[in-house]
Amino acid sequence: MIDPAAPVLAVTGLARERRIAAGSGVEAVGAGGNPARLRVLLDGRVPPACRAVISFGIAGGLDPSLKPGDVVVGTGVVTADGRRPADLDAAATLVGLLAGLPNRVISADLAGVDAAVLAVAEKNELRERTGAAAVDMESHVAATFAGRHGLPFAALRVICDPADRALPAFAANALTPDGEPDLRGVFSALVFGRARVGDLMRLGRDSNAAFAVLSRCRQCLGDGLGIPPLPSEG
């Protein structure tokens, strides 16, 4: 039985996402952009101790019309194994709460992957195969966890890198296990030519824009990240 007084579980990848998500009625967790580690973390939650699950953070764009700062409210998560739908009532509520944002907000599927999608060609192929608007490395894990426990699932992701922009190769390993930037790894990538200053500056601009919008989304959503309370029994 789901405890209606339990918090909403916000599943994130980056420590900055986790800090933004945390608040009244929310427990935020993350695993540093590592889906395998995230699965272990969530599998250890017995009972799940939450009333709903939301994937919350930034994402890579697959829809070529999306730009950094655009918001995708998930209607489902597509993987190589199929599609898991989101709770449509929760998704509709999120869209309504975000109506005052100056940014574009769309409802669309997300693609869930276990390895970072860096190249433009990879993004194009994933878009063609899944029809998803954006991609991240947590939503599919969160959706599976929610489904296993019969919990409502929602997703909110803000575009960071658009579909026509590749990420530098070092970005796949640029995080600590806690989801903080691995500054030593970034410096090493610069020293050994695996990254260019221009790439870092552009990524920094895009991510700052995305995180600013993510913070505004958090303010709009309020308690429990906007996930409607469960109906009372009886």
Explain the overall architecture.
- It is a single chain.
- The chain has 234 residues and is α/β, with parallel strands linked by helices.
- It is 35% helix and 22% strand.
- It is built from 7 helices and 8 strands.
- The protein has helices at residues 15-21, 35-43, 88-97, 120-130, 139-148, 183-191, 197-221; strands at residues 8-12, 26-30, 52-61, 71-79, 82-85, 105-112, 134-136, 153-159.
- It has a 5-stranded mixed β-barrel with strand order 3-7-6-4-8, surrounded by 5 helices.
- Helix 1 (15-21) runs parallel beside helix 7.
- It is globular, with a radius of gyration of 17 Å.
- The two termini are 14 Å apart.
User: By helix and strand content, what is the structural category?
Assistant: alpha/beta
The quaternary organization reads as single chain
Which spans have pLDDT < 50 for at least 5 consecutive residues? none
Largest sheet: 5 strands, mixed, barrel
Report the span from N to C terminus.
14 Å
N-to-C order of helices and strands: EHEHEEEHEHEHEHH
Distinct helical segment count: 7
Please list the strands of the largest sheet in the order they lie side by side.
Answer: 3-7-6-4-8
What is the helix fraction of residues, given as a range? Answer: 25-40%
Task: Estimate what percentage of residues fall within beta strands.
Answer: 15-25%
Shape: globular
Mean pLDDT: 90
The count of β-strands is 8
Q: What integer value in Å does the Rg equal?
A: 17 Å
